[in-house]
Amino acid sequence: MKNRLKVLRAERDWTQADLADALDVTRQTINAIEKGKFDPSLPLAFKAARLFKMPIEDIFDDEQG
After folding, report:
1. Under a CB-based contact definition with an 8 Å cutoff, are residues 37 and 16 in contact?
2. In 3-state terms, what secondary structure has residue 12?
């Protein structure tokens, strides 16, 4: 799953650790999601959408066409 987490995080000058703290996950989880090695759970995706004040679809792309 493609995502814009790294870009959104960089725009705010947040480290992976900063984002992990805000989403209550580990830095390793953020790293894996950013690299596309791990897809976030639905609750985590909603939490990220609320944090960035954006629709989920503007952050995550399931690449299904």
Report:
1. no
2. coil
Percent with pLDDT over 70 in the chain:
97
Answer for the pair 37, 1: CB distance below 8 angstroms, yes or no: no
Residue 3 bridge partners (DSSP): 60
Contact 8, 56 (CB under 8 A): no
Please state, in angstroms and rounded to a whole number, the distance separating the CA atoms of residues 30 and 23.
9
The model's pTM: 0.91
Cα 29 from Cα 24, distance rounded (Å): 10
Element (H, E) at 61: strand 60-61
